[in-house]
Amino acid sequence: MSPDPLDADRVPARRVIGLAAPALVVLAAEPLYVLVDTAVVGHLGALPLAGLALGGVLFTQVATQLTFLSYGTTARAARLFGAGRRVEAVEEGVQATWLALAVGAFVIAVGQLLADPAARLLAGPGEVADNAVGWLRVALFGAPFVLVTMAGNGWMRGVQDTRRPLRYVLVGNGISAVLCPLFVHVAGWGLEGSAVANVIAQVLSAGLFGRALRAERVDLRPDPRRMRAQLGLGRDLVLRSLAFQACFLSAASVAARTSVAAVGAHQVVLQLWTFLALVLDSLAIAAQSIVGAALGAGRRDRARRFARQVTGYGLVFGVFLGAVFAALSGPLPLLFTTDRLVLDEIPHAWWFFVGLQPVAGVVFALDGVLLGAGDAGFLRTATLASAALGFLPLVWASHAFGWGLVGIWTGLTAFMVLRLVAVLARTRSGRWARVGVT
Q1: Residue 28 lies in a domain
Q2: Can you give the residue range of the structural domain that contains 414?
Q3: Number of structural domains, the chain?
Q4: How far apart are CA 95 and CA 92, in angstroms?
Q5: Which residue in 317, 221, 267, 327 sits closest to 55, CA to CA?
Q6: Within a domain: 122
Q7: For the residues of 152-195, what is the DSSP string, one character each?
Q8: Mean pLDDT taken over the chain
Q9: 281 has pLDDT over 80
Q10: Are 376 and 412 in contact (CB under 8 A)?
Q11: pTM (two decimals)
Q12: In this predicted model, what pLDDT tens digit does every residue of 388-405 receive, in sequence order?
């Protein structure tokens, strides 16, 4: 048996990479679906790409709003696992899966009713909204399966198993990557074909997580008491997600009201931002699992030392990604679109995206530390304050004064810098490091 990495003063880098690398693919699953869609649909023209931009933002925000099924489950399961109570840790996943199915059914019903008015509220009447609604109404049928996958990732990360989720997501991504161009271009289904491909892939991935739970031989019955406890932690994470929703929906709306080219360019850069955010967030998954287990085992000093360690990892990783995407500023956008007006708009957002990578590396790593500690209340407040003081005023000023993508991405920069200050101060204080099973 290999030694417990928490018995050392410093968690070995190979242990962090062993947890983070498989989690990277899992974290990137949903943005990868949309990145593939963006590349495939982008060759249909600017209008379908704009429709995908708007529909993709709406669907992604639904998933973002419900990340407590993943992050909250990891926090609870990791502490139980650290305390030597693995069966109870897995049972957290059972209850999260029941919640995922119930919430997913609700999302389908409400989403079908609200898809049209939501798209028109953001983009106004016209062909962009029409395209977005057609895509979104199909994509919503994948919501329960996306949420089941979140729950499965949550409990598996909690018990420090990130390899099985990697295999399950590779199945879904591979199926989607094959079916998307076939449905969109070969079958001639257009924009809606990409949504059908995603739903099929999401069903397959969720089925694999369900089979994994059954193989654990734990109690599969719903437990209202545990579900209520999960919802308690989820409340703070939902409010935190609302801040993200308000920011990115506002940005999409302002871009859509600027021009079709602006919203297409915003879609390309935003999806790359979302993808790289989750690349960086793979460190947060490792941090969440390791910190949660350490605190569950009563090892407060080791949790604090690891927080400092993972901060350095996040900074180095962010600098590296910024340098890579600075070098790719010319050829990479051509993979997503050949529309000259869209390509001319992309640089207005691209260099903000590149410059923010080191900031994002530290912010996401420390988010993982605080989430692993169950410090969701602080993260809720910090994110809401950063959105209210940084992102939202600048995004809507951009609309009022015609600043376009430069104004939108200046708002994102202010949002990230404020979050950086908040999480650094909180981590340094040590008040988050509460030991025991909560």
Answers
A1: yes
A2: 12-429
A3: 1
A4: 5
A5: 267
A6: yes
A7: HHHHHHHTT--HHHHHHHHHHHHHHHHHHHIIIIIS--THHHHH
A8: 87
A9: yes
A10: no
A11: 0.77
A12: 998 888 888 888 888 888
